[in-house]
Amino acid sequence: MGEHVRHAGRDSLAGWFTDTPSTGWTDPTGQLTHWLFALGDTLAINTLRTLAVVAQRPADRSRALADDRYRTACLLETMRLWPTTTLLARETRREIRWPGGGLVPAGTQVLIASTYQHRDPDGLEHPDTFAPDAAGSPPFVHFGGGRQICPGISLAELTGTAILRVALEHTLAVTAPRLPEDEPLPHMLDFFGIRVAVA
Ligand code: HEM
Questions:
Q1: Which residues line ligand 1 (CB under 6 A)?
Q2: What are the pLDDT digits (tens) for 134-165?
Q3: What is the 3-state secondary structure (H, E, C) of 50-105?
Q4: What's the superkingdom here (predicted)?
């Protein structure tokens, strides 16, 4: 990794390390493993799943092909329905009383289940429907939240939207689990079960 960073082009992300302020606490080269994972696994899975949904909805497919913003919305909506980070870990900084009366002391380890929060039947009008026009509104946490929120959001959206366009233009057929428009969407979408044939 260090070798690659030393020879990185000035117009590459790694090339920007040279001009980016850092201290003894920062480990820019150490970030690269995360970038490769985040772009190569996380984003790839989300893009593939988006392709699987859109391929089964001709109206969404046409709109996504013609409109960059709608394509991004399709990606985000897919991430709401099937978030790749299913649990977020946090620690409470103060005592919290739940509406039901329970007390959680400060310093408690908490897990936030995005898979539940993104489909909360009490908080959302159509939790189990693919609705890109409403995508991305809070309280969805597919990119996390607060101070630790994913710093790669813009890069992920930009890259995912661009790849989806090429994929939609060149895709001949997508084989995927059935995702009917008139039924609640399943809580899991196995990306290993998605096959794409491209021209
Ligand atoms: C669709 C793609 C991606 C998804 C779904 C995603 C999701 C997430 C999530 C859920 C977190 C935890 C945030 C929290 O705890 O609040 C996170 C953290 C992080 N992400 Fe991403 N990410 C994606 C792409 C990227 C990309 C492309 C990069 C960089 C090139 C990146 C870099 C990071 C880093 C460095 C952190 C750690 C932040 C910290 O703890 O301070 N991510 N991401």
A1: 31, 34-35, 38-39, 42-43, 46, 79, 84-85, 88, 142-145, 148-152, 155-156
A2: 876 767 999 999 999 999 999 999 999 999 99
A3: HHHHHHCCHHHHHHHHHCHHHHHHHHHHHHHHCCCCCEEEEECCCCEECCCCCEEC
A4: Bacteria
